[in-house]
Design goal:
Blueprint: E1 15-18, H1 20-27, E2 37-40, E3 43-50, E4 77-78, H2 84-90, H3 113-134, H4 156-193, H5 195-203, H6 208-245, H7 260-284, H8 298-333, E5 344-350, H9 358-374, E6 378-384, E7 394-400, E8 408-414, H10 418-422, E9 426-429, E10 443-447, H11 448-455, E11 464-467, E12 470-480, E13 495-499, E14 509-514, H12 522-532, E15 537-543, H13 544-549, H14 553-587, H15 589-597, H16 602-638, H17 647-673, H18 677-682
Parallel strand pairs: 1-3, 8-13, 10-12
Antiparallel strand pairs: 1-4, 2-3, 5-14, 5-15, 6-14, 7-8, 7-11, 9-12, 10-13, 11-12
Helix pairs in contact: 4-7, 4-8, 4-14, 6-7, 8-14, 8-16, 8-17, 9-12, 14-17, 16-17
């Protein structure tokens, strides 16, 4: 690995360490790579080692994002910090204006996290004071930082998914309880049917403990087989979950297959549930005295009904949670973003190693735009530095001409017709044109929020602004409608759009609005890029709709899983209710026959069975509704932007459970109504 002697400024010998995934995926685990030179942003470096497979760098789980060349979390190659100036000078994708580094520290023995936290905040306060002085700001932000153990690495995945996954784990726990209650009810019914068998075994000399042990063994065997099947499903399902997570804006590389700890946990849960939910049915299966006619005792009926009530209550909670997550997803998908996301193709180009001079690249990008707009099915084409809802971008303060207002502004660099292409209305002034290039008066277009914050009711057209770190004055030539910048959930920030062709090197994210499905023009777009820009790499090609959907993959994953769990819980409750009613009807066949023989009609029998089912469902609803409302509040505290206290989601759970209960009760009720009285009376 890299040692202190490798990190010397001006050293002619540069070294590099490869990540395991890079060595495996790009080099086929070739051991001959050691000692050979590779090019890191055109800087030669000798490979001296390979990191272990479990090491992802400080950012665990992220892989390279080639969709936007300026944003990447890849840690495929590790080089000494002394090489950073060379790579900065060579690399187009780096931001030479950055003046920070990420620092990692190892604590001295005996130092507590509280001491580190206090000292780091003292240093951070000094940093904020220096930055405020540099910006001529009178107030220092009241910010603080936190410290955390780095043993598991930093992970935006953990920040993004940890709380929602805890909510899903609670849902899984409820689902497990429903399944266990269901199985307990079935074992209870099966045990009641075997009471004569148990009585015979006892009469032949079997002890009660031995019979309990036999029934518990059967329960544990059932639990073990189910756990084994669950593990097999987990192996397949974990890969599917990672693939769904990888559809987000930043692809991920994780190995989440069950390991020894997960298998031990599963075995413990299987053992515990097998014993707990098999013990009572096993004990109740033992005959304390001859059952005579085999009628049910009141206690046994009450126990079986209690299990159904519990299943219904848990199912209401699951259905309410599913409805809440689905409504949250629908709210995000239908939120007004200030743009028209339909039929927009996005093509990322990477000219960093193309060999183009800056003026050549600007000229050929302009020619490429003209060619793209001539393609059949294309309405308009443009360029931007950062697409909407990309999760990152450039920001800083701005100074408004003739005012002491210094709004905090997000910045983007765009080409002519960008606003038309992404569907942002031009409210006042004009759009950029191809005369807005290097050497012409600097122009900027602002959104309505910046116009309101910076100028109030005054007309901003013709006024000038300057930006933090840039001494040039920009004339405001237009105002566009507000649009989301970083995230769907955020309030629309003050945003300034600058002409990309007034930069030394233009942005390279092409956006194309089409009159046909965007996928139809992808081959033609690739062909035009290859014909005109032979040495420029084509990165990720996707649609604006897919790009925006990638920003809410967390919500989509949670909504999908919670809906699946809610449906599965309802199905289990329906099976349990059906099983109990079918068993009850079978045990009461002679009673039903007598009722019908003395004048009861079929509708009376159906009403009797449905009434029994509805009483259990209503009891479960009465218990489940308060728990659902409490679960809503807990979930809202764990998942951002989740709205609690929505009566509609609770009503959805109640209505769904009523429908499921009636459907489950229909078949046993119909069967009871068709009992032949004479056959029923001969049954005994």
């Amino acid at each position: 690995l890299i040692e202190a002697g490798d990190d010397r400024m001006g050293s002619p010998a540069h070294v590099a360490v490869l990540s395991w995934s890079f060595w495996k995926n790009r080099l086929g685990l070739d051991p001959a790579i050691l000692g050979r030179k590779i090019m890191v942003e055109d800087v030669p470096a000798t490979v001296i080692g390979v990191a272990p497979p479990e090491f992802f760098g400080t950012q665990v789980g992220w892989t390279e994002d080639i969709f936007v060349p300026l944003v990447g979390w890849t840690e495929d190659i590790f080089v000494p910090l002394a090489m950073e100036p060379l790579i900065h000078r060579k690399s187009y994708t780096s931001n030479a204006g950055y003046k920070w580094l990420q620092l990692i520290g190892r604590m001295k023995p005996g130092v507590s996290m509280e001491q580190v936290h206090a000292e780091m905040n003292v240093l951070f306060r000094r940093t904020l004071e220096i930055e405020a002085a540099d910006r001529h700001e009178a107030t220092v932000p009241d910010w603080s930082i936190d410290v955390a153990p780095a043993g598991a690495g930093l992970s935006r995945l953990r920040d993004q998914f940890s709380k929602p996954l805890l909510v899903l784990m609670a849902i899984v726990g409820l689902l497990l309880l429903i399944a266990c209650a269901n199985v307990a009810g079935m074992l209870l019914a099966r045990g009641a049917a075997r009471r004569r068998e148990m009585a015979l075994r006892i009469s032949l000399g079997a002890g009660r403990f031995r019979l309990v042990r036999q029934l518990l063994t059967e329960s544990l065997l059932l639990s073990a087989v189910a756990a084994a099947l669950g593990v097999l499903l987990a192996y397949a399902g974990s890969d599917s979950l990672v693939r769904i997570m990888a559809t987000g804006r930043f692809p991920v590389e994780l190995s989440v297959r069950p390991d020894a700890r997960v298998l031990l946990f599963t075995a413990a849960v299987a053992l515990l549930t097998g014993v707990l939910f098999g013990l009572v049915p096993a004990v109740r299966a033992l005959p304390l005295r001859d059952s005579g006619r085999g009628g049910e005792t009141r206690t046994r009926r009450l126990f079986g009904k209690s299990l159904i009530v519990a299943q219904v209550a848990f199912s209401v909670v699951l259905l309410t949670a599913a409805g809440m997550f689905v409504r949250n997803l629908a709210s995000l998908e239908n939120r007004d973003l200030g743009i028209n996301r339909d039929r927009v193709l996005m093509v990322a180009l990477d000219p960093s190693h193309s060999g183009y001079q800056d003026d050549e690249l600007s000229r050929d990008f302009e020619r490429l735009l003209a060619r793209l707009e001539e393609l059949p099915g294309v309405r308009s084409a443009s360029i931007c530095w950062m697409p909407p809802i990309a999760g990152g971008g450039s920001d800083g303060t701005a100074s408004v001409e003739g005012s002491n207002v210094h709004p905090y502004v997000y910045k983007n660099w765009v080409a002519p017709r960008y606003f038309e292409t992404v569907g942002m209305p031009l409210v006042a002034g004009r759009d950029f044109n191809f005369q807005d290039r290097v050497g012409s008066p600097l122009a900027v277009i602002i959104n309505q929020t910046m116009a309101r914050v910076g100028f109030g009711a005054a007309n901003p057209l013709g006024r000038h602004v300057t930006f933090d770190g840039d001494d040039h004055r920009y004339e405001i030539i237009g105002v566009v409608g507000d649009a989301k910048y970083l995230e769907i959930r955020e309030a629309t920030p003050a945003t300034a759009y600058r002409a990309t062709f007034q930069q030394t090197r233009p942005a390279s994210q092409f956006v194309i609005r089409t009159a046909v499905p965007p996928v139809q023009i992808v081959p033609a777009v690739r062909r035009e890029v290859r014909d005109l820009l032979k040495t420029v790499l084509i990165g990720k090609v996707t649609t604006l709709a897919e790009h925006i959907d990638a920003s809410i993959v967390q919500e989509r994953l949670i909504a999908m899983l919670s809906s699946l769990f809610g449906a599965l819980g309802s199905l289990l409750a329906a099976i349990g209710l059906y099983g109990l009613l079918a068993y009850t009807v079978a045990r009461r066949t002679n009673e039903i026959g007598i009722r019908m023989a003395i004048g009861a009609q079929r509708i009376d029998v159906v009403r009797m069975v449905l009434r029994e089912a509805l009483l259990m469902v209503m009891a479960g609803l009465a218990i489940g509704i308060p728990f659902s409302m409490g679960a809503e509040r807990l979930a809202a505290g764990a998942v951002p932007d989740l709205r609690a206290g929505d009566a509609l989601t609770v009503a959805f759970g109640v209505a769904a459970m009523l429908a499921v209960g009636l459907l489950a009760a229909y078949v046993p009720a119909r069967r009871a109504a068709h009992v032949d009285p004479m056959e029923a009376l001969r049954y005994e």
